[in-house]
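New here. Your pick:
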Amino acid sequence: MRVRPAAVAGQFYPADPVALAASVNALLAAAPAGGGRPTAVIAPHAGYPYSGAVAGAAYARLAACRGEVRRVVVLGPAHYVRLSGMAVPRVDVFATPLGPVAVDLEARRTALDLPAVVVSDRPHAPKHAIETQLPFLLHALGPRITLLPVLVGATPPAAVVELLAALLTGPQTVAVLSTDLSHYLDRDRARLRDTRTAEAILARDAAAIRPDDACGHHPLRGLLRYAADRTLDVELLRLATSADTGADPRRVVGYGAFALIA
């Protein structure tokens, strides 16, 4: 069995299982629950001390699907390896301090039938965007879920739509889009930028998302095109910046949590 080891445990979130479980439980408990069943959520992927409360807002909404959702398609940006199109991993399991998460083999086969998707472990090995979602997924949906991790490089929205359409075929599957918003503006400018980005997301306006609005702008544009094609409702759950947790207000990162509901 091929295993992708945790790459950022102890950096972005606690490596100790007890401490990690307590952190995720607290973040989920502090978030409002209720609302419609999401087809997809958008969540940030920074270190938990900075973006964990925003991520918790997204996963508290997903927690209502526990027992129904069996497979999660997680899309994130390829930060460290230049990638044209989308990459799914060759490994069978993603390791976490809370236990393994199995890669969904059927979903991977379906994805690899698409021309924009390749199989490669290289872009996944160092990447935090998907890994940071896994402890939340395990707590929100349970340890029996399976995962299709998809890193998205320079990819037209239509290709992301094709992937989502092939995989989101029933209530047992949901999508998570992992992205942060603005990067390294001062707090006031970041809030203005992120408010504009949130308005575009709520309007399902893929064309309004610019590269400097979100590190995951490629998958985000695709998800918004998918939402517009299917007239999904979009709900803003929480919007914040790293300065809200005490980070330097002169150079912040923005975070947003959203739910997309059929």
About this structure: The mean pLDDT is 97. The domain at 14-68+123-152+168-174+199-262 is CATH 3.40.830.10 (Protocatechuate 4,5-dioxygenase; Chain B).
